[in-house]
Each structure stands twice: as C-alpha cells, then as structure tokens.
Amino acid sequence: METDGIWSSRVSDDFTPDGDLEKRVWTGAQKVRFDRDPFQRRSYPEIETSVATLWTPEHLYLAYWCNFVDLHIYEADDNADERWGLWHRDVVEAFIAPSAVTACHYYEFEVAPNNQWLDLEIDLEDRKPIAKDWNSGFLHAVRVDEAQGAWTAEMRIPAETMGIREIDPDSIWRINFCRSDGPSSARRLLSWRSLDAGQWSFHQPARFGMLRFAS
Q1: 8-state DSSP, 25
Q2: pTM of the prediction?
Q3: What are phi and psi of 38, to 5 degrees?
Q4: Which of 50, 94, 120, 146 could form a disulfide with 108 if both were Cys (CB 3.0 to 4.6 A apart)?
C-alpha cells in the first residue's frame, strides 16, 4: 500500500557512506518498499526496492536496498566525474525539494551499481534549464552481492548545497524515490509514489511524498 510520507531518523554523528547497510546506524530506520512501474501499472517483485533515510543538521542520508536479476551498467569510468545519461542504465534516484511549498524547485541524485553518479538542480517553475554543472558534493557508495542478487547504495547529501543552512526538524520536505532497471528492450521503471502515466516522466513534483524529520 502506498504511503504519503517517510520519517527520517536523527543520528548523533555524521559518517562516510560505505554501502554497508548492515551497520548499526540503519537499524530501526523506517523503510518504504516499492516494486511498481507507475507508467505500465505493473509490479515487479523480483526487483523490489527499499529505501530508508537518516539525518543530522548538516546532512541527509539515503539508503537503497535493491533486488536484481541482471545488472546493466556503463563500463566503469573515473567516478570522480558525473555520468550524464546515467538514467539509461540501472540506477537509483532521489528527487528532493527542501520546501513543501516550492516543490517545483528540486534536486536529483542518481547512483548506479558501479558507483557512477549524477546530480542535478531542476527548476520547473521558472522554466530554467537543468543545471548540468551544479555539483552538490554528495558522497555515495555501493555494494553488490551477486550471490544474493542484491545491490545497495548509500548517499550523504549536504543540506547546505540545497540552500538549507541546517535541517530544521519541524520542516517538511517533498521527496520521491525511483529506480531504473533492465536493458533498453525490457526497461523497468519503479517509483515509490504513484505518478501520472500520461506524462511518462519521473519529474512530477506534485506527486512527491512528504519527508518528515524525527528528533
């Protein structure tokens, strides 16, 4: 059943992502699970995805648990540089609007199973071009367990890079979690929140869910 929001649990100290989601810091964090393609109205339980979130005043953390059948990635490059078009391969995505009022101005973060990455600033309200050169400085790490058919991704996103001096626990942000999986001939697109199938795009801020911060 779809929920309209997710709670982010506060942690006392910042940490560097390593892709290991078995560590204690993630124990007890609320997870949301999804396996539904919002455009074809189909479910794919074999690639069920779970997401949890943590926060400190300076950073938002995201964790993804992803089941997979096969991996489809770009050949590994120097991951110091972002990879444009990453969404054409296997990838997890987060769309984050730090204001529940102006959700049309938001930020996109993508990480692939080989730790290639992309971050974007998007402003649909003012019809500004996507800021390709914007760099959030977010940290990310992945792990792949071929035997279990699962990969994990962990992100640390600076609040300051999204125009927030520090996270206010009384604030409500807007957010959506998405995933692309599979070859181009059998593409599967998953979204935590339901979307307008007619638009055929993840970029639907009116459908983002609510992100609340637990003290």
Answers
A1: G
A2: 0.94
A3: -75, -10
A4: 120
